[in-house]
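> call design_seq(struct)
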């Protein structure tokens, strides 16, 4: 039996859909959810629901009973994620889970000097807990989701003609979330991946200057890229009413990219997915082409 955590989130829900498409019976899939009402779509596919919360250890113990493989989708509460993830690993071990597949984080700099340390720290600790647990594990070092790029560009990027982000000339090998979820499903239905760590990144990287050029070609409008300092960026977004937490997160990723921490390519995803992942130009065309809007 495969249990998927975070099942009402984008990644978990997508992973379940791919498991079903790849021939796994709905009776062999379980979805961990906090709110059953939000999981009606999953339930309609014949997938059983178990109620559990990363903050509630006993709920996890009960949810993991009879589970052979666990897709452990990392939590989104950065400040409390460490304690939550410790609960998941401990409960998995105590419940007899055989194999945990964990969605971790990818970056060249895994030290406190990284702008992304607040994001990375709990991921790295969780990796260590899994390795120490004695449970078979597979760690997926996931790069930035390509799906998030429009948020970095801003919803009015075509209207303003400006990309304003402190990413300098740094590059990132972002990948569509659905393609990572499909590769994850491939891992879950195979027995060849225990003890492995995979780097899920694209085969090419891009800068936001390149994104500006591609958007200009796609839309027929001139899009310029401005890379302010992190302080200037924070001040400008604050003046426009953007919440502080969002500013901090967006700035951290942009500055990390500027420092080259996200400029990683590799073949792990291609090998497991069975094809090349979507390029940034293809994605931008799908999102911003006038013919698609």
């Amino acid at each position: 039996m495969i249990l998927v955590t975070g099942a009402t989130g984008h990644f978990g829900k997508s992973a379940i859909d791919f498991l079903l498409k790849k021939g796994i019976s709905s009776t062999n899939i379980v979805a961990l959810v906090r709110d059953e009402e939000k999981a009606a779509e999953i339930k309609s596919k014949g997938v059983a629901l178990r109620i559990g919360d990363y903050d509630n250890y006993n709920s996890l113990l009960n949810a993991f009973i009879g589970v052979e493989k666990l897709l452990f989708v990392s939590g989104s509460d950065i400040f409390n994620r460490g304690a939550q993830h410790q609960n998941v690993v401990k409960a998995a071990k105590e419940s007899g889970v055989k194999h945990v597949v964990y969605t971790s984080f990818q970056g060249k700099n895994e030290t406190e000097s990284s702008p992304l340390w607040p994001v990375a720290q709990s991921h790295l600790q969780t990796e260590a807990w899994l390795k120490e647990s004695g449970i078979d594990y597979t760690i997926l070092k996931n790069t930035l989701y390509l799906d998030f790029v429009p948020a970095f560009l801003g919803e009015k990027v075509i209207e303003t003609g400006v990309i304003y982000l402190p990413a300098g000339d740094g590059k990132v090998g972002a990948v569509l979330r659905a393609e990572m979820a499909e590769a994850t499903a491939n891992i879950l239905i195979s027995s060849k991946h225990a003890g492995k760590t995979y780097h899920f990144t694209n085969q090419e990287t891009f800068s936001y200057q390149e994104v500006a050029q591609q958007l200009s070609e796609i839309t027929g409008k001139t899009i310029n890229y401005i890379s302010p300092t992190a302080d200037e960026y924070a001040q400008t977004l604050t003046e426009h009413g953007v919440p502080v937490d969002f500013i901090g997160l967006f700035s951290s990723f942009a500055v990390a990219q500027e420092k080259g921490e996200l400029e990683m390519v590799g073949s792990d995803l291609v090998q497991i997915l069975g094809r090349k992942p979507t390029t940034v130009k293809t994605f931008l065309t799908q999102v911003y082409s006038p013919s698609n809007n």
